[in-house]
Write a sequence for this structure.
């Protein structure tokens, strides 16, 4: 798939602007680039049978590949359709990073979270009695949601001292210095390399991967060269396992930055992005490997 850098930039601007401006748990995960990478890395890992069915289901799509449909679920959220409203909470689950335990009645009421959404869409995709349109949408949802659940801040929301949680880092405001062009409202008034007012969720949705300064194709090649994690069917785990794993990474990887004095830090720069990028890339690789395993099982 050939993406021009300019075209990708325009797409990323549209997505990151929302994430930077709206302090809600509905911000986009991984941005367009991250989801594209998950789909592109997963495609070669499909079995011939799964490849064939994916091609059939995606006939008529503008770009009929996993990467090409990876951001469809986010694009859907920009519409005013019934499906957009129904699925708005399917992109995340707010586990407490202090415990990272998943209790469906508390964390996923009515099945409205990313864990239940993956389970439900996997069943629809595997059911050949379902209408082709339903299975096509299920495939597109799976590509996206499996990417979402591997973004740590789509699986955890830190409790705040004043009560409530921080909506997966959306309410954790930061001033970011980076070579990446600033996005969002007022971006044109920002000086390149100067402090960008944003939040920790947007740092992980957009700036973390984008700061590698690579085209999508080159980035995918680099990630493949780093090795794709093997995922045996018996070791695949469940979406709940993946969400808990992502949640635990918030604390284990120090995603909420602290200074030497132990105080929370709200000024970030290239050193933070560079230090955390290997973990972000590992999550993208693992999401791709698990996506392929799920599709291979569902499309036998």
């Amino acid at each position: 798939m050939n993406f021009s850098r300019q075209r990708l930039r325009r797409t990323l601007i549209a997505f990151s602007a929302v994430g930077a401006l709206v302090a809600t748990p509905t911000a986009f995960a991984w941005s367009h680039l991250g989801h594209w990478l998950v789909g592109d890395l997963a495609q070669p890992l499909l079995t011939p049978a799964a490849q064939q069915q994916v091609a059939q289901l995606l006939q008529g799509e503008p770009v009929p590949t996993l990467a090409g449909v990876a951001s469809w679920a986010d694009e859907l959220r920009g519409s005013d359709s019934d499906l957009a409203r129904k699925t708005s909470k399917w992109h995340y689950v707010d586990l407490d990073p202090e415990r990272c335990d998943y209790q469906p009645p508390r964390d996923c009421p009515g099945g409205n979270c990313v864990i239940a959404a993956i389970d439900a869409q996997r069943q629809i995709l595997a059911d050949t009695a379902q209408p082709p349109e339903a299975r096509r949408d299920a495939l597109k949802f799976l590509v996206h949601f499996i990417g979402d659940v591997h973004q740590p801040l789509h699986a955890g929301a830190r409790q705040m001292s004043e009560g409530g949680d921080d909506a997966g880092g959306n309410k954790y405001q930061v001033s970011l210095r980076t070579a990446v062009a600033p996005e969002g409202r007022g971006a044109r008034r920002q000086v390149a390399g100067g402090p960008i007012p944003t939040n920790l969720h947007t740092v992980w949705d957009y700036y973390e991967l984008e700061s590698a300064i690579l085209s999508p194709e080159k980035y995918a090649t680099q990630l493949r060269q780093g090795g794709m994690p093997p995922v045996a069917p018996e070791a695949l785990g469940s979406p709940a396992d993946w969400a808990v794993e992502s949640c635990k990474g918030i604390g284990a990887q120090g995603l909420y930055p602290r200074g030497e004095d132990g105080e929370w830090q709200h000024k970030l720069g290239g050193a933070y992005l560079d230090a955390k990028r290997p973990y972000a890339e590992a999550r993208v690789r693992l999401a791709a490997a698990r996506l392929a395993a799920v599709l291979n099982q569902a499309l036998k």
Q: What stands out?
A: The chain has one domain: 5-298.
